[in-house]
Amino acid sequence: MSEYQENSVVESIERLADALYRLTLHAPCIAAAAKPGQFIMAACGHSLDPLLRRPFSIHQAATSGTIQLLFKVIGRGTNLLSELRPGQSLSLLGPLGHGFQLPPSGPLCLIGGGIGIAPLFFLATKWLQQPRPPESCVVLLGSRTAEEIRQLATDFSELGCLVGTATDDGSLGHHGLVSDLLPPFLSDLKQVCTCGPTAMMAAIAGLCRDTAVPCETSLESHMACGLGACLGCAIPGADGHYKHVCKHGPVFNAEEVAWSR
Ligand SMILES: Cc1cc2nc3c(=O)[nH]c(=O)nc-3n(C[C@H](O)[C@H](O)[C@H](O)COP(=O)(O)OP(=O)(O)OC[C@H]3O[C@@H](n4cnc5c(N)ncnc54)[C@H](O)[C@@H]3O)c2cc1C
Ligand code: FES
Question: With 160 labelled, which of 122, 123, 208, 243 sits at a CA distance of 20 to 30 A?
Fold first, then answer.
């Protein structure tokens, strides 16, 4: 797998909701090599603060040489990213890690919770590169409020997906958990791919196990290097051995993960 350190150039930055941004970067080497589910490490500041690069999923990669990041401002690094303007540069390392493995045919169900929606748009784009009906790409999106997913739900619909939504406050779609939307689809599905809070993915992994539907999960952990060198991103595996999210993942078959530990 090819990895690049690339000085990307900001093409645009959109504010989708209060603290949610979509950043479009010209990064032709990373864009050409990227696979859905992979991530980049971004040097968010030009000084020593923050010292470490921050990991972000590749939200989209285009043949025109751009990649997109979808990010939520939660601290120093993401705040600096939100202040980037067109023409400025951002040093990236990537694409890193292992992405989603897809079955030869669908239907597929992509389930994203909160900022975990980020890698699923690139995945849906790749899946729908072959002409397929909307039922072959069911997308279920969950968030706290409508504001956080309204634009993303529109984007998935326009891509040709069948979209369902769930919000904690009932302001869009189902009032409750996004995992509540999955059971009616399960009997037809060839695979589920999910990214979001651990509790959400554990619930989805359980539903898939009960119905023998393969499930791929994209995990998050604190990362210092993103390259398998610092061992800071270890998570317990179902086989009793630790796995490194940056090298072995971030996408794992749900059966490889020890959800209850
Ligand atoms: C593989 C991978 C892909 C990711 N993709 C995205 C993405 O597409 N979009 C996005 O917005 N974020 C994504 N993240 C999370 C993102 O890396 C963090 O939000 C970012 O590093 C925060 O940096 P900061 O300097 O703004 O916050 P910091 O100042 O570093 O942290 C602020 C607070 O958030 C907590 N925190 C930071 N990182 C994490 C984490 N990974 N898990 C739990 N708590 C954390 C810290 O403990 C601290 O309390 C991803 C993480 C991983 C590992
Ligand atoms: S982040 Fe350093 S080993 Fe995974």
Answer: 208
Q: Where are the domains of the chain?
A: 4-96, 108-218
CB 258 within 8 A of CB 236: yes
From 54, 60, 244, the mutation candidate for ligand 1 (largest count of ligand atoms within 8 A of CB) is: 54
205 Cβ inside 6 Å of ligand 2: no
Ligand 2 binding pocket includes 16 (Cβ within 6 Å): no
User: What is this structure's pTM?
Assistant: 0.96
| pLDDT tens, position by position, 50-77 | 889 999 999 999 999 999 999 999 999 9
118-127 helix and 146-159 helix, angle to the nearest 10 degrees: 10
Provide mean pLDDT across the span 217-222: 94
Task: Pick 108-218's CATH classification: 3.40.980.10, 3.40.50.80, 3.40.50.300, 3.90.1150.10.
Answer: 3.40.50.80
- Alpha-carbon distance of 143 to 113, in angstroms, equals 6
Q: What secondary structure letter does DSSP report for 98? A: B
| CB 244 near ligand 2, within 6 Å | yes
Instruction: Check residue 261 and give its pLDDT.
Output: 56
* pLDDT tens column, 151-161: 999 999 999 99
Distance 108 CA to ligand 2 centre (A): 30
From the alpha carbon of 72, which atom of ligand 1 is closest? 11
Ligand lying closest to the C-alpha of residue 94: 1
Are the beta carbons of 223 and 246 closer than 8 angstroms? yes
In the chain, the amino acid numbered 120 is L
For domain 4-96, give the CATH superfamily.
Answer: Translation factors (2.40.30.10)
Residue nearest to atom 21 of ligand 1 (CA): 54
